[in-house]
Amino acid sequence: MAKHLMLIRHAKSNRDDLLLADFQRPLNERGHNNAVEMATRIIKKELIPKQLISSPAKRALTTAKLFASEFKIQQSEIIQKEEIYEAPSQILLNIVNNLDESSNFTAIFGHNPGLSSIANYLCEEAAFNLPTCGIILLKFQFEKWQMLSRGTGELILFDYPKNISPLI
Question: What is the pTM assigned to this prediction?
């Protein structure tokens, strides 16, 4: 069975408190609204992932929790992986290649530039710069996550909050 990987960049964060560590930055109001809107778009397309994995950074995890709530997935089921925070594409590829085989459709909530970089690595048909709360869905004609490598992904969806005509 084919594998589907959804890459979701955290929603817009609040940068008002200059003393707050980057890891602890919360979402701003627009970020909350965009996360709910984007999750709703995914539901309407019937593209709900079975497994959610997130960076533990506050803005990414909050985004994942908002999506989970809309997807009717328990927040306690979100898997947190510290290595996603500030990860380059090779670390993200290692995470993807070692995903649990019981899930054929996994979403990863994380950060740029890593998510854009791994998307461009896995799917060479377009150049991606993933905006905040942007979503890229890739399909792979493999049965095992470890088979995913450069250029093996097929673009299924690229969408983001300000997009008026998502690619699908």
Answer: 0.95
